[in-house]
Amino acid sequence: MKNKWNEGALYRNLVDGKWLESKSVMTIYSPLDDSVLGHVPAMTKEDVDQVFLAARKAFYKWRETTIEERAEIMYRAADILMDRIDELTQLLVVEIGKDRKSSKAEVERTADFIRFTADTAKNLSGESIPGDSFPGVKRNKISIVRREPLGVVVAISPFNYPINLAASKLAPGLMAGNTMVLKPASQGSICGLSLAKVFEEAGVPAGVLNTVTGKGSEIGDYVTTHKEVNFINFTGSTDVGTRISRITSMVPLLLELGGKDAAIVLADADLDLAAANIVAGGYSYSGQRCTAVKRILVLEEVADTLVEKIKERVEKLRVGNPLHQDVDIVPLISTKAADFVMELMEDANEKGASLLLGGKREGNLIYPTLFDHVTTDMRLAWEEPFGPVLPIIRVKTKEEAIEIANRSEYGLQSAVFTQNINDACQVAAALEVGTVQINNKTERGPDHFPFLGVKSSGLGTQGIRYSIESMSRPKAMVINIH
Ligand code: G3H
């Protein structure tokens, strides 16, 4: 592939039959070699107004389409996505520096997600509630409850899954009958515009799916506080999510934010299984996942053995540039991100943690790093690195593990490794998180499971059916028979 991405494959907004032309563009560089990949519109507030106008106008028509018509478009979108899998895989590699295998898996997972969303929407049913189940109400009263779209939904997707986490907002939102405004993270915006183009080619009419690109510092707040917005579906950092919830009032939100997922390893755990899951969960895509395993809380009596097993596996991880080879550990998305990871590692080093592996940096490539004897006065015990570094915290009891796990400001997921079902259930019940994985790494999928965070990790519930429900509302019609 040459320096420039195929700009003809990018979505453009059509407003009142005319292409929306932005005066300036934003250049997107590859995090792998700083080469120019292409340009996306750097929209102004006036452009954003035009986009919302188109979305609002289109809503009244789109909501009248049948679920079957929308589903047919989704099935076509999934097929087109798979037809372009090679091109999109390459784009993910160069734009966000994801390894080739995971990039391909992201495209496949997205096609599956879109198809499953169409199937699910087709099978959702409303309800009818007899009035006479309530005291004093006669048999002549019945409530019929159907789901209605919300209107114009803003979907804000992050850099780390620019295709999947955009589609996981767009497909359920569209199936629910909303019109959508996609604002992809700048790094990942070529992927976002390519995905929007796929939906357009599949038959999504002009105005139903729109895109906004540009500097967050210039138009970010303007988009989220725009008067035409009826719902915001955001995945990204806790800082930005908190800001969105502070500045938007009375606009319902679905937020998926940061995490500090703990893997708790009890004394009777299958340590090979635990080590395999911890390494896969902690280091894939260099830890740049909200659900990555971000700390290990292990019972002292098995800590030495577990540490050895983890070390063995981390040593085998392939490190490098995904452009040139198949690797597990890739350069981080930006210098700022790599600087932050180094800062947390330096703090752990200074406070006496034992550096077992890694700690090395070449540009934005950070070698897989493992720290043992991390204590709760270290930043690494609490802060989310979004990088390939895992702290091991040794604990005396499972109660201590639960206490440290819950002391976090985050509450996305946790994992517990044990062969005792009673312990597994007790620990799972005590953890203040959205999901507890028993004997598995923390992870979002499969995508029809509910996915949610509590505390600083988010608001609302995703997952195919849950996302459709989040982006729609019940509408009741009460029939009174006389
Ligand atoms: O980064 C946040 C994503 O929701 C994580 O998804 O668990 O499939 O990697 P994943």
Could you characterize the architecture of this molecule?
With 482 residues, this protein is of the alpha/beta class. It has two domains: 7-257 and 458-477, 3-Layer(aba) Sandwich (Aldehyde Dehydrogenase, Chain A, domain 1), CATH 3.40.605; 262-446, Aldehyde Dehydrogenase, Chain A, domain 2. It contains 14 helices and 26 strands. Helix 4 (100-123) runs parallel beside helix 5 and helix 5 crosses helix 14. It binds glyceraldehyde-3-phosphate. Glyceraldehyde-3-phosphate is lined by residues 160-161, 256, 289-291, 443-445.
Helix content: 25-40%
Number of helices, counting only DSSP H or I runs of 4 residues or more: 14
Regions with little confidence, pLDDT below 50 for 5+ residues: none
Query: How much is the radius of gyration in Å?
Result: 24 Å
- Overall structural class, as computed from helix and strand content, comes to alpha/beta
Total domains: 2
State the separation between the terminal residues, measured CA to CA: 71 Å
Strand order of the largest sheet: 14-17-18-13-12-20-21
Oligomer: single chain
Q: At the fourth CATH level, what is the homologous superfamily of the largest domain?
A: Aldehyde Dehydrogenase, Chain A, domain 1
Number of strands: 26
Q: What is the class of the largest domain in the CATH system? A: Alpha Beta
Characterize the overall form.
globular
Summarize model confidence as the mean pLDDT: 97
Task: From the 3D structure, determine the CATH topology of the largest domain.
Answer: Aldehyde Dehydrogenase, Chain A, domain 1
